[in-house]
Amino acid sequence: MEIKIYLEPLDFKNEDIEYHDLRERFGHIIPAFTDEENFPELEGIDIAILGVKEDRKSVNNFGSSNAPDEIRKKFYQLFPSSARNKIVDIGNIKKGHSVEDTYFALSEVVAFLIKKEIIPVIIGGSQDLSFANYRAYEKLGQIINIFTVDNTFDLGDAEEDIDAQAFLSKIILHQPNFLFNYTNIGYQTYFVDQEAIDLMEKLYFDAYRLGVIRKDIEQVEPLVRNADMISIDISAIRQADAPGNANATPNGFNGEEVCQIARYAGMSDKLTSIGFYECNPVFDNNGQTSHLIAQMIWYFIDGFYNRKHDYPYKDKENYKKYYVSIKENTHEIIFYKSKKSDRWWMEVPCPIDVKIKYERHYLVPCSYNDYQTALADEVPDRWWQVYKKLI
């Protein structure tokens, strides 16, 4: 497949960026698609930056289509954190005659990259592009977990057309369905009606309020470690740190917290795509939001090159195994602790035929706190959520 037919070169060249000195930065070392004759070589590449200048389904945030190149200009000025930078910039998805055409092109390109074991870093554009990202996994026949950083669930009305605040219901109802689990962090209760919260519980999805996560940001790590695909809405960041969004609000994550989340994402062996959406240069203050997203991408890359490659689904010999009997031996939970990283997983029992189908999902990333919960004769919430899905 020739993905170049779906892509267009960047509107700027490296020499258009104002560097303060001659020291080597990302802009000097990342091969970029800047003209039709020079498409980057993809063999041996780990990460591909991909812009999508699409905001026709934006909600009150038109102008986000201009974000990809503005973010790149900030990102290219950053110093690499590792010498192992096998990264390319493959340009922008050509804007389709209709939004559906753009979705199709994006899903084709993302599916191609994932199949080649290249992680696409998608820079939008509006967040409805997450639906196209999901469709890429459908093309691959892969059941996945989706993780979002958002101040709401973006469910919308299932009967209405898709838009940036109503794409999740389309994913949930889409047939055939390849969604195993959905996790949201950072939702703010005054933006979410009770019916939506009830639906999350009914579907055994995971949703964590902003205050709960900010109280202990480290609890995000096992949640992110379980994700195949991540979608980050910049409106989940407080306006003071990310003013470049027409829907920005006073409360949200701060810059340091979202950079930490991005690094956790990079470190996850399971994650195969990530997208940053809803940045709008029209409302940005001195490029602050573009700069923050550039730093988030930097942290993601730094996390990627610090992966431990210790997912126990591959090799259980490098783990300490713990058996915990709870509720008067009515349940036994098996925990795995990596000898490499000290990270934890727990095994959820399920029939053999189900285990084959959900091979990548019955081993659940968890924390030492979950192990302590089991020792206290309580079943961890994470374990229950997955168990209910598998029985």
Describe the fold and architecture:
The chain is α/β, with parallel strands linked by helices and 391 residues long. The protein has two domains: 302 residues, Ureohydrolase domain (Arginase, Chain A, 3-Layer(aba) Sandwich); 75 residues, no CATH class. It is built from 13 helices and 13 strands. The protein has a nine-stranded mixed sheet, sandwiched between helices. It has a four-stranded antiparallel sheet with strand order 10-11-12-13. Strand 8, helix 9 and strand 9 form a beta-alpha-beta unit. The longest helix has 17 residues. It is globular, with a radius of gyration of 21 Å. The model has no long low-confidence stretch (mean pLDDT 93).
Number of domains: 2
Tally the beta strands. 13
Question: How much is the radius of gyration in Å?
Answer: 21 Å
Work out the oligomeric state of the chains in this entry.
Answer: single chain
What percentage of the residues does DSSP assign to strands (E)? 15-25%
Mean pLDDT: 93
Query: What level of helicity do the residues show?
Result: 25-40%
How are the strands of the largest sheet arranged? 1-3-2-4-9-8-5-6-7
State the order of secondary-structure elements, H for helix, E for strand. Answer: EHEHEHEHEHEHEHHEHEHEEEHEHH
Per CATH, the architecture of the largest domain is 3-Layer(aba) Sandwich
CATH class of the largest domain: Alpha Beta
The CATH homologous superfamily of the largest domain corresponds to Ureohydrolase domain
Helix vs. strand class: alpha/beta
Helices, by number, come to: 13
How would a crystallographer describe the biggest sheet? 9 strands, mixed
What general form does the structure show? Answer: globular
| Low-pLDDT runs | none
By CATH, the topology of the largest domain is: Arginase, Chain A
The CA-CA distance between the termini, in Å, is 39 Å
